[in-house]
Amino acid sequence: MPHHNFIITPHSIHTPTAIVHTEYDPTTLDPVPSPAWTRFVCISDTHARSFDVPPGDVLLHSGDLTSRGTVAEFRKTVDWLCGLPHKVKIIIAGNHDITLHEGWYDKNPLRWHRDVGKQDRAAILQLLKGPRAVASGLVYLESEEHVFQVKDGGRTWSVYGSPWSPYFCNWAFNYKPEDGPALIAKFPKTDILLTHGPAHHILDRTNHGDLPGCPALRARLPDLRPRIHVAGHIHEGRGAYVHAWTGTGGEGEGRGEGEGKEGEGEAPRVQNDNWYRDSDSDSDLDEDDEDEGDGEEDEHADEAEDEGEREGENELGVTPLPHPPPPTPVDRTVFVNAATFPSGRHAWRGVRVKGLHACHGVLVEDREERMKVPFGGPGFQAVVVDLLD
Ligand SMILES: [Zn+2]
Fold it and tell me: Domain Calcineurin-like phosphoesterase spans what residues (predicted)?
């Protein structure tokens, strides 16, 4: 068998409080910058497949653990997840994990499982929440909150997990558009938000150009402002984007197709594009952002100088004015569509096929061709998110 070498184009987004690696060579992936950071490894839509993921502190899985919710598929997935080194592994269900939707699956189990028979939900919950799962740090969340700690004496992190996604062909955990606001109003404010479906217009564009993400979730984001929101579901929307909320509004960090500056209090608009390069400093958007950022920094620098002078005058009997308040920390949300199921235009890419090949009767060394990316392969790797504690 020829040895296939997919061509990897490393890509990261760097901000003061969040670093995101969307494409990387696992053998040379940067570690967290310091012990003050925590590494989250984000995956979704694994559909009973397994593949290599980088180590880290926390694994986040945004649903579609299986293709059709059989006990065998869950066993395979849980075997894989329990063997991963992450201390905490937060997982949710997706629309394909049909057996977990209590009351709904039972109405018509044979619609899905005529060949294998009705599946045992209790056995599946035992896999997801039983002693072995607990011992390996697996935490299954179904519309519930959880708080965990990964470093001894370190901070705690809160997470909320919801398996629900907008109605699509009557799959599990589907809600009608009119039911979205009430369902999402129940989401508490947490550090980490896991939903199976993405928010509308944030990494949700399908191959057909639709944006089926949830508008109610999008409308709620300015209030929730999690440090990280992981979704999946729309496989071809895989990618990441960091949004900085400034004051009541927000500005994008990074660059996404169709992205622009937003009005006050609005969630960002990011169409899926896992190929954008935020580090390009020649875009209009980046230049605007930099200009504003510099302006703010200059302002603070001036204040600091003034203060220094005032302190110098202290011996003259001048009471120093109060220190200026520190700059307000910027809230940032890292948006991740963590789908690892290769789909859409990025599911095929160039590979170097090593060795000698006969080409039109001539022997040639190493050639390039296009091949289907495997689960979790380049373009669909686990998204690695480092957050400053
Ligand atoms: Zn899926």
Answer: 39-236
